[in-house]
Amino acid sequence: MVVLGDKEYYKGIDKINFEGKDSDNPLAFRYYNPEQIVAGKTMREHFKFAVSYWYSFGGNGSDVFGQATQTLAWNEFREPIQAAKNRADAAFEFIGKMGFGYYCFHDHDLVQEGQTFTQTELRLATMTDYLKEKQAASGIKALWGAANCFSNPRYMNGAATNPDFRVVARAAAQVKLALDTTIALGGESYVFWGAREGYLSLLNTDMKRELDHMGAFLAQARDYAREQGFKGNFLIEPKPMEPSKHQYDFDCATTIGFLREYGLEKDFKINIEVNHATMAQHSFPHELEVAAMSGMLGSIDANRGDPQNGWDTSQFPNNIQDVTEAMLVFLKAGGVQGGGVNFDSKIRRNSTDMEDVFLAHIGGADVFARALLTADKIITSSPYESLRKQRYSSFDSGKGKEFEEGKLNFKDLYAIAKENGELELQSGKQELFENIINRYI
């Protein structure tokens, strides 16, 4: 029994164990075996699964069209500190029963924002002490922290990119507190999500000035955290739109270009969310590859969108084909650098039983574990790698190799093209690659 508070919130549910793919128990892992070694690491080490504080312990099924459908027993108290402690008790009970090692949070997930900045600071300090006790008792850690600089009306025109300097200063103060909290809780990374760092209309936006301000803001946040002894990664989470019309961290390529433009590439990496990749008209594997190519694959927010909806539905991952293709990139890149896999996902509005959040996380962990196993077999036992290598074999020797080594100029290429004459088509073997994926799933 895993209960770390005075009250058990998830009654009747014990610790979730691995029982294998033939198990009929819906409250058991079929593929996620934390201690199983795959490609030289245990699954626990590969994934470092984390639970999102905001959805799993703050979401209640409400949306813009309807009221809450899910009862959160830990919110019975109206007094903010007691309510926050109740939520922490529920969170650590749930994470412990899942057997995961981490959680992720925004500052105001931990405790309700106060009426004044001073009151907010005191509340965060109180909850930081309480969470440190919970972590020490359970062994559960903070994967990363972040500041919610997008919900409060003061940030309607952005935080670091706000045209009002007073708001920029307030955002900096809030990020300082969030950094302090993350450092005190031993957070392994710190995330910036620029939800309103963008614009609704270019008519009233000085984009260059806003980007300069954001670059300076992130550099100063980095310097402050380093001065406090923080040694982890700073992560930026790309998203193309929603709530802003256009967000400056549109996708991985845009974000990496921004980081290099402002000299932040040595300290910052990318936190890639699956649904955000979809909204940017990319695939999840594409965004992983773009980040990995630049050595910036920092962490993953695991979820999915709905192909029939154009917004961020944040559903739990369940598509084995898509995740397998992502795990091929993941394994070839050596995994994430300093981060983990955070289930930034929420159960559906009509999922109203307490066990539903367990079923959702079990399914998410199993699809990632099954995809990892499949990707490892594809890499080690199929012709996948040799076929990819063969496709580029003309660059492994001769003139092709000289081109990659920078030994040929454009006139050389012109002469080679004339000598080669007309060329035979070389198949990309797309269907064969797809069949290999399906064969090993």
TrEMBL record:
One of its GO terms (biological process) is D-xylose metabolic process. The keyword Iron does not apply. Its EC number is 5.3.1.5. Keywords: Carbohydrate metabolism, Cytoplasm, Isomerase, Magnesium, Metal-binding, Xylose metabolism. Mg(2+) 1 binds at E237, E273, D301, D344. InterPro entries: Xyl_isomerase-like_sf, Xylose_isom_bac, Xylose_isomerase. The active site is at H106, D109. GO terms for molecular function: magnesium ion binding; xylose isomerase activity. It is found in: Cytoplasm. Homotetramer. Belongs to the xylose isomerase family. This is Xylose isomerase.
